[in-house]
Please model this.
Amino acid sequence: MLASTLGTDKQMASVQLNDRYAVRPVGDEPHQQKIPLYVGQEHVADLLLAIYLTLDRSGTYLKTARADFRVFSTLDRTPLLRMEYHAGMRVDPVCHWQVHAERGAFTHLLSMANAIDARRVRRPHDLSTIHLPVGGERFRPCLEDLIELLIQDCGVDHVPDWEAAVQEGRHRWRLRQFRSAVRDLQEEAADVLRLEGWTLVPPAELSPAYETPYRRW
Model:
């Protein structure tokens, strides 16, 4: 389990919520669902995560409808950073990072835009309002990417064999996303295989291309 790569024994559970399931750390209350993060064996931050699953448009395969990854310092209640994915997002990017930080030059840019039209940037002094798009529905980051960031860039404690577990999980994730992309765009996939020398026989009924994930930010 990925939490063990961070040196914790936090278990995950699947909880039914109407027509979907939430996969999240065990615990009835939000504070019980935190995965503690340590630096030098000192508890400095917490990881909160929840992945909501339902059936895809074919009714055959599981689909992630929403994923929330958040990192909190133990010093206050404001997240340090968060990644959110919502398949039904209409205004913000389907998948995005939000960083809760400050930088004067960035705030200056946002304040200039706010002064011209307050509807452009409603809170120019809050950088967490910036949604950084990261690949949309099919090519978004996975939990393993966040865990590697916490270990490599933030110095979070980890077990000796963490890298192999993270790489294996990332490999499974990306192959699964690749297979979903092939199902979405079967004619595109077939064209590439023909160019590579494959001989293909199309089915009697070809599923229409599902291009929505490749148009939205």
Remarks:
- Residues 111 and 153 are 30 Å apart (CA to CA).
- The first strand starts at residue 12 and ends at 17.
- Residues 162-184 form the longest helix (23 residues).
